Amino acid sequence: MLNRELRLAMLGMVEGNGHPYSWSAIVNGYREEEMKTCPYPAIFPYLSRQPAEQFGIPGARVTHIWTDRPEEGEQVARASRIGQVVARPEDVIGHVDAVLITTDIGSEHVERCRPFVEAGLPVFVDKPLTDNEADLWQFCRWVEEGKAILSSSSSRYSKEFLPYRLSTHNLGQLRFVSATMLKSWERYGIHSLEAVYTIVGPGFLSVRHTGTKERSIVHLKHHSGVDIVVAVIEDLYGSYGILQLCGTDDYAVVRTRDTFYSFKAQLQSFVGYVRTGERPYPFTETVELCKLIIAGIRSREQGGREVFLDEMEL
């Protein structure tokens, strides 16, 4: 694998998530007229702003596509230069070197991943890896068995947050952090959580969700003493990806904007993992992030109870 082009499969597409279009285009390039008809209106504009030399990941190509609705797979293939559209996701086994599960409904991911994990293929899973404890157990068992599974939010790679991933020393001691996000806690809360996590590090203690399913207001406590509030509101499109860091000496407010950069860095990270077998970050980080998602759901369902992460012993 180190000396030949990796063959990748993009598998799955659910309502509200156009990653098969954008991720495949980042790797393969795209056909302009076909991409203009992409049903996700944000994708073509941010792709079209990129110079041609930004497309492509050396030594990798998306060769196969499967989507839940067959007609969508055909359209993605035309737009993103994918050669093979398969009738069943399992049909890619034996023809690709790795697969990407391009859906963001965590409760479905164990079963979407199972055939490929059991076949020994490296798997990248779109965020969140899962949203329930039983499936998190299953992913942990697979990783303990040596299965190659990687999952992340693209916010882990946001270039706008990079200075604060490197250091928050100029802010003094962090005391309060807030983050805003659109859509739902189950599907998009991970974007805010992973952005914060890569800055404050592991060591979350508890989660309290005092909102509703449409308006998630979530207070998280961290061992360092910093309080974190994440707001995930269904129609908060104007405040996607805003991060506020408040310290004893100074503060910073920053917003992630360059989606192309984040997605490409995320894909490059997976390709590097497939080639070398070396994890770009510990799987324990993904486990802790999933626990935060699960604790938030549990707290909401239990009337805003403070849920401690050590209630989930994996």
From TrEMBL:
SUPFAM superfamilies: NAD(P)-binding Rossmann-fold domains. One of its GO terms (molecular function) is nucleotide binding. Residues 58-151 form the Gfo/Idh/MocA-like oxidoreductase N-terminal domain. Gene3D superfamilies: NAD(P)-binding Rossmann-like Domain. Pfam families: GFO_IDH_MocA (PF01408). This is Gfo/Idh/MocA family oxidoreductase. It comes from Paenibacillus oceani.
